[in-house]
Amino acid sequence: MTPPAVVRRGFTLIEMIIAFGLGLVLVLTAAAGLRMAAQTTTAATRLSLENALMRSAFLRAHEELDFWRAYDDPEDATNRSYRDVGEPFAPMSAVFPRGTLPGANAIADPREFEVGWDEHYRWPANDKRTWMRANLAEKHITVLAFGRYALFWSTEPQLAVTSGVGAYGTVPVPHTWLAGQYHGMQDRLGYYAFADYMPADALFATSRPFLAAGSDRERTNNGGMTMRLIAPGTQFEPGEGTTEVVKSLWRLTMPAAYAIPKPGAAGHAEYFRVGYQNTTGAEVRRLADRARIDQRLMPLKPSAWPSATYSVMRFIKTRRFVNLSTLGFTSPVTGERLELSFAGYGTTLRGARQQRHPVSGWADYDNASVPAPGRNLDSSP
Amino acid sequence: MNHARSGTVLILVAGIAAIIATVASAFLLRMRADVEEMAIAEREAQARIMLIAACTYVQEASRLGYDVGAPAGKHREAFGWLDVRDGAIGPRGEDWSAPVGFDPFFNATAVEDRDGDGSADRPAWPAVRGVARCPMFVHERPPYATELTTAYNPIAAAGPDFGMPYLLTPDPLSVIKPPEPDAKARAWAGDALPRANSTGLSWFRVRREDAATFVVTCGAGATQGFIDWDEVRGLGATAVFGGDRVAFDRLLAAETRTWYRIEWSAAVAPSEVHNVANALNTGSVVDQYISFPMNTSDVPQDKAMRSQAHCINMGGTIRWVQRLRQPPTHW
């Protein structure tokens, strides 16, 4: 029996064209998908890299917020340029050491004659020596219509009371400690530190022997209050309109800001008029130029990577202690610059000083037996 | 037809698809790694929020939160960690007796077992060396919760009431209100049940170092602020973690913890702000003590209207914050 013939039938031309066409569409679609996937992966890699840099900058900004190493690095002697008198990381033992006033009188609590910064003293509200005795209505150009408040508080235990409106003789003064604290701290660490170290209820004034001429730090009004702190438009007082009397930190920083400048820039004893009566914005730029420290995240990065920076700018405005962090990214491809800003909360200046040994390194805290802050920048023998 | 060539397209497409799948897998893995790394940044932010919460807690606890000897339904007022009346260690109440002085809201006797050895080794909060452990979560409904409605009394844009600012509806309104049963009591009490999606995220704990300084620990994670398993045992809280030490240790390993010292002060912003009417008698040597009253609305012609109501803090302030590079022995 003859087997049936095998019918070997090929594709018709139309079938071939359709099959080739469909196959081509499939291959092209797959190839397009592959190209898209490759591009997506590239974009994702770049985004992932940018996100990683952003996270890293975010974490570094928070670390800087807590440890202040851009201003003073305990582990790097080349970056400790703020330890001289008038600068925020000067050791207290050098700028405002503890001691006792000469010329004590018999009417005052002996603790009134202490001077210098005591890191352990809490300024308790019940302690009379922390109470402000300034006349809140006394102007910088006063004729002392309400009397001489210098009789109640002054930096001098024995005060020879004189002024442009008459003399009073020498009197023992019952309260000297607080006047001494304000006078001593006003510029030993810069204005930012002055505001940081004084308590929240501080009224920024001090009472000194009358001095009609001299530097703003020494010159006083007729009542003996230092002009620099109360007279509008002097060094510390930003000159908010016509407020001619003693002020709190809110009033002082409503029109202006005190800042910690970046190393190498001036401005420790300066204000920046960034609020009331700031009409041009130039002072805001001046503040940023002086106080913003941009730090590069990876100085040795590959050239194709975005460059990332982070900064923490510290200033006081309207009584708020502002830590303004800014993360910056620049694309190496387009040159596009992206910035993210946020205000953070962390270690204060006083806390940062307590972190540091007065000479070098950190001052670590422990409490194994009793709270032991260790010798730090605020320690004073 | 050539069978060896009949699968060419299939092979090509399958190969390309395999490459796409590989690329997609790599993409997903990268995204997953990104998410995991992002969790570190999230925990850092969460812990930072806890620092603010802890400082606020210390400020409030200087005055509030004590019912020692209080009549039922009443609370007692304290006068600061460092009592503003006599400088003694607070918090203390208003009742004075010799030789104790003002009655303390704390007891220095050791009652808590820190290390799980069966003996008490630290006093209860708020005594010095005492610890407050505060796991944070969101209440299902906080006390006195109000609706988020923006405008209860919109001014009509047409009709007979056009332009009339009628205050027909109380503003704001409680979330729980009549005719719901016991509306007032329920609204005031709130619903303290934790919202499920807010638990196990963060906590803080505060150890009182001395009268006015505190060690604050900020945590982002689910250990609820227990130091270690020994403390969990010592405080009888093993059931919180199902008695599973391994599970607790895993939570501990995944957690972010930061340590700070802070100091509380009774000082608050002074009432000097806009007190003396500075715009009067400007440039004259004659002092004046005319003051603006609280929330003033009446001032001399051409003078700025001022109010001194910037002094609204009743809980003291935080004088300084210090991040610790390493945990202290006790926290």
Write a brief structural summary.
Chain A is α+β, with helices and mostly antiparallel strands and 381 residues long. Chain A contains 8 helices and 9 strands. The longest helix of chain A has 55 residues, at 13-67.
Layout of SSEs?
The complex is a heterodimer of chains A (381) and B (331).
Chain A: H1 13-67, H2 92-95, E1 99-100, E2 114-115, E3 158-161, E4 169-172, H3 177-185, H4 191-197, H5 227-230, H6 249-253, E5 257-259, H7 282-291, E6 295-296, E7 307-317, E8 320-330, E9 337-343, H8 349-354
Antiparallel strand pairs in A: 1-2, 3-4, 5-7, 6-7, 7-8, 8-9
Chain B: H1 8-61, E1 92-97, E2 101-104, E3 110-112, E4 122-123, E5 131-136, E6 139-141, H2 183-189, E7 191-194, E8 202-208, E9 213-220, H3 229-234, H4 245-253, E10 256-265, E11 317-324
Antiparallel strand pairs in B: 1-2, 3-4, 5-8, 6-7, 8-9, 9-10, 10-11
Report on the structure:
The complex is a heterodimer of chains A (381) and B (331). Chain A is built from 8 helices and 9 strands. Chain A has 381 residues and is α+β, with helices and mostly antiparallel strands. In chain A, the strands form 3 sheets. In chain A, strands 5, 6, 7, 8 and 9 form a 5-stranded antiparallel β-sheet that branches. Chain A has a two-stranded antiparallel sheet with strand order 1-2. Chain A has a two-stranded antiparallel sheet with strand order 3-4. By secondary structure, chain B is an alpha+beta fold. Chain B is built from 4 helices and 11 strands. In chain B, the strands form 4 sheets. A 5-stranded antiparallel β-sheet of chain B has the order 5-8-9-10-11, covered by helices on one side. Chain B has a two-stranded antiparallel sheet with strand order 1-2. A two-stranded antiparallel sheet of chain B has the order 3-4. In chain B, a hairpin with a 3-residue loop joins strand 1 and strand 2 (101-104). The chains are: A alpha+beta (381), B alpha+beta (331). Chains A and B meet through helix 1, helix 6 and helix 8 of A and helix 1, strand 10 and strand 11 of B.
